[in-house]
Amino acid sequence: MARKDHRIEHDSMGELEVPADALWGAQTQRAVQNFPISGRPMPRGFIRGLGLVKAAAAEVNGALGLLPKGRAAAIRKAALEVADGRHDGQFPVDIYQTGSGTSSNMNANEVIAALASRSVRGKPIHPNDDVNHGQSSNDVVPTALRVSAQLAVVEDLVPSLRHLRKVIDRRARSLSKVTKTGRTHLMDAMPLTFGQELSTWSAQLESAQARIEDSLKRLRRLPLGGTAIGTGINADPRFGEQVAKALSKLAGTRFESAGNKFEGLASQDDAVELSGQLNALAVALMKIANDLRWMNSGPLAGLGEVELPALQPGSSIMPGKVNPVMPEAACMVCAQVMGHHAAITVAGQSGNFQLNVMLPLIASNLLDGIGLLSNTMRLLADTNIAGMKVRKDVVARALDRNPILVTALNPVIGYEKAAGIAKQAYREGRPVLEVAVEATGMPEQELRRLLDPAVLARGGIVG
């Protein structure tokens, strides 16, 4: 007899108590009891993907006559409620569970069956026989993984990338005539404009977006229809292709049935590829964030080239201190995404024969990384880059005294003589132009032309 606030459910292993208000059944309850590890359930995006897969499967099962249309429609409706997030509290299974994600698949089957049974007469909807008809956890979970990751990329990541690029490009245009000191090895180098410097960031992001979008060509291939090991046992031969078409309509983005279902179950190389592209994006964002931190450093004892918007007090003990908090947060996000990629890499090679057994980890890390990067790019764009102010006086003062400008004189006076001028200018704290007039005897007007930072930023002139 169950406790007052519980009910008795059973599965193939026997009976056990389930909370009375839970929509899930025995198999989900076993997973809850077996895996009290992180306290973190599978991400919302994955549950959404799982709901969409179940809805598309029910639609196809009804259309093919594999389930009575009324029951198929009830399952589809319940699955879409799950996809829409109306029952997220009914998905308690920990990320760190059975490697195939069977517990999460059965969690979905049980919840959807309970919901669908409310709207049908006669025999209740069965989690395995009806909701899971023509499916296996082994093809459902890697399919939901791909669906959820692609949706997160298409709906969140790429729009955020485009937004950040748009803001950077706008600032680059507005600063296209402001010349500053370039730096290599963190040391003074030839001049460039702020527009040129920011164009580097934009180009990095453009390349990152192209790589990410290219990876979707492989990620969109769904292994559903392969069932247990890829052979398609217990699935109609038409099932996989038709579910991919139904999913494309439901999700509003293109999916296709994988030509080789064995690959989609046994390996997760396409997910590892996407993770690698997220890793590369994180590398680009960390470079951008650190450039901002260096340019903002000071304001007196650092470079002090720009002033980032003040977002919050920077110290509990030093009054008036303001820190570059958003670039710092961005760097932490990038570090986490790099860590996710290391874990996904290990998980991706953790397939033995016909099945990968770290699917929940791959799904969770992919979605977490996509979400972190998407949010960070928008915040970095809107709170920092859009409002960044250039301290033109500081920039001009450093540029005037940059001894590396003498590089432009190499073709005229030679490298060694130019090096002597640079060293003297640095040693005496004088502008290069002033020292060059004394050392070369050349007309000041000609030297001004040769040493004009704005001209040098365009590639310079000779003679």
How would you describe this protein?
By secondary structure, the protein is mainly α. It folds into three domains: 22-133, Fumarase/aspartase (N-terminal domain) (Fumarase C, Chain B, domain 1, Orthogonal Bundle); 139-181 and 193-226 and 267-392, Fumarase C, Chain A, domain 2 (Up-down Bundle); 401-456, Ribonucleotide Reductase Protein R1, domain 1 (Orthogonal Bundle). It contains 18 helices and ten strands. The strands form five sheets. Strands 1-2 form a two-stranded antiparallel sheet. A hairpin with a 2-residue loop joins strand 3 and strand 4 (187-193). The longest helix is centred in the middle third of the chain and has 38 residues, at 137-174. It starts with 5 loop residues before the first strand and ends in a 7-residue tail after the last helix. The mean pLDDT is 96.
Flag low-confidence runs: none
The helix count comes to 18
CATH fold group of the largest domain: Fumarase C, Chain A, domain 2
Using the 3D structure, state the CATH architecture of the largest domain. Up-down Bundle
- H and E string: EEHHHHHHEEHEHEHHEHEEHEHHHHHH
Q: Biggest sheet: strands, sense, closure?
A: 2 strands, antiparallel
Helix content: 55-70%
Structural Rg: 30 Å
Question: Rough shape?
Answer: elongated
CATH class of the largest domain: Mainly Alpha
Strand content: 5-15%
Order of strands in the sheet with most strands:
1-2
Q: Give the termini distance in whole angstroms.
A: 98 Å
CATH superfamily of the largest domain: Fumarase/aspartase (Central domain)
User: Total number of β-strand segments?
Assistant: 10
Count of spatially separate domains: 3
Oligomer: single chain
